[in-house]
Amino acid sequence: MNALPLRATQRLQFHKGFTLDDAVPLVPYFAQLGISHLYASPLLAARAGSMHGYDVVDPTRVNPELGGEPALHRLVAALREHGMGLILDIVSNHMAVGGADNPWWLDLLEWGRLSPYSEFFDIQWHSPDPLLKGQLLMPFLGSDYGEALQSGNLALKFDAVQGGFYVEHYEHRFPICPRDYAMILGGDELLKPLAERFSALAYQDDAYTEAGWLKHVLAERATEASVLHAIERQLAEFDGRQPDGFNHLHALLEQQVYRLASWRTAADDINWRRFFDVNELGGLRVERSAVFEATHGKIFELISQGLVDGLRIDHIDGLADPRGYCRKLRRRVDSLSPNRHLPIFVEKILGEGETLREDWQVDGTTGYEFMNQLSLLQHDPTGFAPLAELWTRYSERPAAFIEEARLARQQILNGSLAGDFESVAQALLQVARDDVMTRDLTLGAIRRALQELIVHFPVYRTYISARGRSAHDDVFFLQALAGARSTLGEGDWPVLDHLEKWLGGQPWRNRPVGRERKMLKHACVRFQQLTSPAAAKAVEDTAFYRSAVLLSRNDVGFSTEQF
Question: Residue 264: its pLDDT value, please?
């Protein structure tokens, strides 16, 4: 089948109140309007009740709340009758976490690095914080940890169907590792044989597999009333509202691969990548082949069935390697649909003077820059001066939007993204310590220089490769460097010179293979994954709400100061 010519799209936001079948009777109307393609919000299984679909919990199936795969076939059949196509929005950067509905995330919490999904999520396992050594911070508690324990808001529960123990906190479920089931079961004579078998997992190489079988045995035994009552008696020993129960439950939780904490700790202490500062959306390492295949398998299946006519990639700048991802996706899509070209569009905000990289092999962006140009046709540039004067006089805020944006970036880096910022600073400190010529650089100096560099960054991010920064990237990086130099004291200028080299000025492929090269690459990737959310949170979520010289120019991807 030849590719359907892309003429005009109509975006549809699917959810349980507007399913794929609900869109079928609208197709003739869209066709009469001249629409060539429906552009669908993400269709993979999302969190129950999701109104947008970007919080995917199971990428292996089409969302049953939308009607599932049968409904998708019916919608595509209706589109084909009218010569129309379907463009899918896909989320490659993150999944919904927390809650009790993401099987990959729950398995990770249960087994830590023994879980086959431990490399799926973007986790910093070696935190500099001794309290988080080998543990994941779980900032999902509505209060401080001790208070949640004492109030009974952390309750140890038993899943009789699955044969598993977990701690419940409102909608959140935190699995207990089967190797620790003996701490729960061991105090009862009836349960002691089971406790000993679970305890033995600590010494078995195949503990992950063996535990699955033992949980099945526990579930079967729990069908006996005497065994179930014994388990319930043991659970009562972990009631945090009682002094002994408080100590027992705390000791059990201390053995897990996660550390439960108040939601307020996330900004400063988070040790895994999120979507911006949203605790319920965990970053994926889609640059890994196993993750790429697992998260895209259903999409590829739908393409091979001829149901999809194009893809829109959400938040491309969140990925470790956008270029590598796009090129890999293009190769796979072409192999699945060899007789037609399926366009791939990326959600990418282009800064002033920035263009989409041609070597990504995608067909374009989602059009923020086009809307910016269209908006400019509707505005008289001579209006800026009187409106700016009026705004400054009555608000006592800066009229220059760039000043408002820089103030917001400082706030974001010291606030909601402080933990992410600290992660980059620590990564750069390790690079400095690894070289005798730079080991005297202090963490404080690196923090000051890094913050000013990000505050003055003119684009969302660079795309550093093993060969270093491209000439295209260099223009923007040097612009940020000059801005940072203008606001930093001269004593910190040498630190900026080192950052210029480490962050793409000197290619990491020229470094010796091993630890040194790995550390430098890690620092570069983390830096680039920070500048993007810092820009988005500062500009879109903060400065746009503070600067009102002219609200019609405050939109995503707009050059706000340009009238």
Answer: 95
The count of other CB atoms within 10 Å of the CB of residue 232 is: 11
Roughly what angle, to the nearest 10 degrees, separates helices 443-455 and 515-538? 50
Measured distance CA(24)–CA(19) in Å, rounded: 9
Amino acid at 43: L
Residues forming a β-bridge with 158 = 165
pLDDT attached to residue 428: 97
Domain boundaries, the chain: 9-93+286-366, 133-267, 398-546
> Does this model's pTM top 0.85?
yes
Angstrom distances, CA of residue 390 to CA of 379, 385, 544, 545, 551: 17, 9, 17, 17, 14
Locus of tokens 């980059």: 424
Nearest Cα neighbor of 216 from 156, 176, 160 is 160
Q: What is the pLDDT of residues 264-279, one digit of tens each?
A: 999 999 999 999 999 9
- State the Cα–Cα distance between residues 79 and 85, nearest whole angstrom: 6
> What b-and-e string marks burial along 454-476, b requiring 16 or more CB atoms within 10 Å of the CB?
bbbbbbbbbbbbeebbbeebbeb
The strand pair at 44-46 and 37-40 is best described as unpaired
Measured from the Cβ of residue 380, the count of other Cβ atoms closer than 10 Å reads 7
Instruction: Extract the residue ranges of the chain whose pLDDT is less than 70.
Output: 1-2
Q: How far apart are CA 62 and CA 46, in angstroms?
A: 9
Tell me, what's the pLDDT at 248?
97
Please tell me what DSSP assigns to residue 468.
B
Please write the tens of the pLDDT for every residue from 352-402: 899 999 999 999 999 999 999 999 999 999 999 999 999 999 999 999 999
Q: Which helix (H) or strand (E) holds 275?
A: strand 274-275
- As to burial, measured by CB atoms within 10 angstroms (0-12 exposed, 13-18 middle, 19+ buried), residue 337 is middle
Provide the pLDDT for residue 516.
Answer: 86
Q: What class does CATH assign to 9-93+286-366?
A: alpha beta
